[in-house]
Amino acid sequence: MLKKEIIGILPCAGLGLRMRPLRYPKELLPVSYERSAKDGSIRPKLSIEYSLNAFKLAGIQKCYVVVPDWKPEIMRYLGDGSEFDIPIAYLHNSSANGLADAVFSMRPWIDDQLTCLALPDTQFFPATAFKAMIQKMEKENADLVLGIFPTDEPQCFAPVELDQDDRVISIEDKPAFPKFFNAWGLAIWNINFWKFFSSTIHSIPPGGSISETFHRAATEGLKVYGVHFTNGAYYDIGRIDHLHLGEINRSMAEEFLSSEKNEIGE
Questions:
Q1: Calpha distance 89→78 (Å, rounded)
Q2: Domain assignment of residue 15, given as a range
Q3: Residue 212, domain CATH
Q4: Domain tally for the chain?
Q5: pLDDT tens-digit profile of 63-93?
Q6: Are 16 and 222 a contacting pair, CB within 8 Å?
Q7: Count of beta carbons in the 10 Å neighbourhood of residue 50
Q8: Beta strand segments in the chain, E
Q9: Model-level pTM?
Q10: Of 33, 43, 29, 110, which Cα lies nearest the Cα of 83?
Q11: Angle at which helices 47-57 and 129-140 pack, to 10 degrees?
């Protein structure tokens, strides 16, 4: 395993316009239910908790959550992270200037640690995806590794082209005519990518996606790889037409319960 400290980031600074008329934070939507290990009661499991659990399964020991003025409920619910067994700190960003801008909020707080990015309004499996990505990072001495999942709607995401060695050739954000039926959904990077990100952040237009920065990194000399979870799945809870909760409840609950049992047994 990599010896460097790994820090998670969960950007929650969007306006959630795709969920209107709902004005409740989409990251706090209940997407399944679970039985409490403490008292046996049934409690809702919120969208953001799946990302926190995935961080824990990968051995990530602390997390930054990027929040704007209009989502104090996230801080109220997560607190300091003790209830979720992972220390949480908060970064303030109310610019609503897109994913790249929200993620870049973390830059002043990073030295040479590795950064893991998950999107807290999405669900994915395998739950242990970050473990495989960390292993890929170590094997290839990569600057950036993307977690890539199959999708039937690549035009809604950012499909990735890989070569035979899993090196990223290109990334296209929401293409009208996609060539590949996949999408990146997770990322881990080192200080080299942070430096590249810092040098390009001012050229990203307001509302810009980080996918373009990933693409530029891959085409401008950084070592960018992908791990393609061909049997995995990825759900965007941040779209009201994607709330297939029955399907998510079954598949995600089974996957995380299985992963957590395996962790206990190891």
A1: 10
A2: 6-265
A3: 3.90.550.10
A4: 1
A5: 999 999 999 999 999 999 999 999 999 999 9
A6: no
A7: 26
A8: 6-11, 30-35, 42-46, 62-67, 88-92, 114-118, 122-125, 144-150, 160-162, 168-171, 182-189, 224-228, 233-236
A9: 0.89
A10: 43
A11: 40
